[in-house]
Request: fold
Amino acid sequence: MRTLSGLALLGVLASTAFSAAEADLFSLTPSFPGARAAGLAGAYEAVADDGTALWWNPAALSRLKRVEFAGGMHHMAFSNRSVLASDGRPSELDVRRNPLDHISIALPVPTYRGSLVWALGWARVQDFNLPYRIRDGESTFEVSESGSAGIFSLGGAAQLSRIFHGGASLQFWSGKDDYYWTSTGSEGREEGYDKLRFKGVGVKLGGMVQPFRQLRLGFTLSTPVKLDQSYDGSDYSFTLPLAFAAGVSWQERAWLLSASMEHRDWSTAGYDDLPFGQDQFYNRELARGYGSQTRYSLGGEMTVIGLPLRLRGGLFLRNLAQTGSVLDDDGLSYGAFREEDPFLGYSVGAGWLFDEVVSLDLSFSAESGRFSYLDRSESANPPRIEEEHRRRRLTLSLYYRM
Reply:
């Protein structure tokens, strides 16, 4: 795994201040696949009625009545404003990417009663783009970090009763994280490059209840995912924690209102097969230094009367997975995270239906949050570092239904 203490410059670290870099990567970089889901701020567990249900709520696949081909792209802009409290000079770096967002196909199967739908596809679920620069006097430490995580999913769903739909998807995770750092100062320049590659398999179970026409209730359970990882010649595994999500939506004529939450406890993540038997140390770090993280989403949509146009928007909020704990091991202090401003975001979007066969969805979302932490230092008074993350994202999705 990446042990960041080796990258320190005058006691200053990169943005993943804990040694459990994977927990920081996955908890700080969520992504909403699909333009309609993103336009509703992620309040999609009780709405999903397209191929992206594979990743939001597999049970909703059973509501598809026609063969569907779907795909999308997104433009992502991320900026990080960071400052060392003892220096006081902020630095800001930004990065922009234009990757594939999702691609899927859904195939309804004729049934005597109810419905049965199979689907497969791939979606980008994490964007590991976290640039970072910190200054201390004449010295500078800078990080360029890039990569992503994607899930190839194979799933199916069926209407099991008049009001209940059930589904599941088998999810094959894969991804990479490239980490390049430089330090410059009076003694010259140093640099380093680290590569992380991973893959794993998980299952997502979903259910949807529709007691009457206007109301839908959705819920999902994602099993823990054991990621087999390769880091600079070392092979080990990191397990993502179980995730639970629930949502509710209300459809009244031209109006839709939806809300959802997703919860996972990062203290239950864990390492296996680390070199030199370090599992116990890093798992203790996870258990004490990380906690529960919950994302809340609220979205709304309006169909414009007389036009095949839908307008939508929403708000979402999430907390840090890192806690305020200060851990000590061999005189080394680190952590003590503080959430200075919560991660709060908004979204807007629109969808247009062409000839009842093709639909085009576009969304824009923005999120920002600010936090601080102590660096890993042997000093009795380690300095505090503050970061402000801002993320902007434009997503375009195209759907063709036969």
